[in-house]
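Case 138 in the screening queue. Each case pairs one protein sequence with one candidate compound; here the compound is adenosine monophosphate. For every case the pipeline is the same: read the inputs, emit a complex structure as tokens, and attach any notable structural observations.

Predict complex for case 138.
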Amino acid sequence: MAYDPDNIFAKILRGEIPCVKVYEDAKTLAFMDVMPQASGHTLVIPKEAAENILDLSAEGLVAMMATTQKIAKAVKKGLAPDGMVLTQFNGPAAGQTVFHVHFHIIPRTDGAPLAPHGRSMVDAASLEPIAAKIRSAL
Ligand code: AMP
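Case 138 output:
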């Protein structure tokens, strides 16, 4: 499948739709997931147009992973979860729903189940204070 330049993350990168931003540099962007599986669920995307991890250049991969680690450290420091899951899906059969490669950073709390993937949308205003805690821990 060819990269669709009108996928939702491409639109976020172009500033055509809003996101609750956590971090941005020349090659990557991190923002809050609007359908969080747990409080603090953050996404990291490369700016490079790549549908999945197989299509991403080595340089883009390095940038995405470096930012993923940076944000995961900030989530740990800012939100103090018991643990964190980092996930990345390739293809519809694997659960990918947005076809611009991304990493999920999902905080976990002992004994608390994960909400279903991409099921219920929350208000952007409720994500802002969580994003602020992550940003302040960067
Ligand atoms: P995946 O299923 O791995 O492709 O994950 C896509 C993720 O993007 C899901 O967790 C969605 O909740 C999330 N998502 C979809 N649209 C938006 C959006 N406009 N802003 C932030 N997150 C989004």
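Case 138 observations:
- The chain has one domain: 8-111+119-136.
- The CA atoms of residues 50 and 109 lie 32 Å apart.
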